[in-house]
């Protein structure tokens, strides 16, 4: 690796934090449309997001790689990937979702729409105008697809799905009715 002392500074595991207000418009919509969402806070949630940013002072000057972990998971899931990519002139950002690992929130259901809104509000809090590459692991592919429809979707040059969830029920599952019921409530 080039310039190992510089790389060790950049790749250090300093966890950064930023306060994000999120999901207010989504929760407002859900309260009006879905009667079973009566417990969601109408004003959204405020949470402190813990994340890794390899070059936090770069702003929008470098290409941005956003890494989203699966469920359960944390920014630490991308430690090896970050260590391999840190020598390149890119900014790698790995946030935690609420209630996973170190980031806490009181009410967060981990629906795909919630996660997408959370990530979009997180990116706005960082004042990022683009995401060049989106890397999604496991269940984070669902909010990633929603993010494709956002203002950041038009800036994406690359989309990576690592170990994505399947789209069909596994035939070997013994209780298809239970599986269909679970999928219904997940949606």
TrEMBL record:
Which lineage do the record's taxonomy fields give for this organism? Answer: Eukaryota, Metazoa, Ecdysozoa, Arthropoda, Chelicerata
Organism annotation: Tetranychus urticae (Two-spotted spider mite)
Annotated protein name in UniProt = AB hydrolase-1 domain-containing protein
SUPFAM superfamilies documented for this protein:
alpha/beta-Hydrolases
Superkingdom of origin organism: Eukaryota
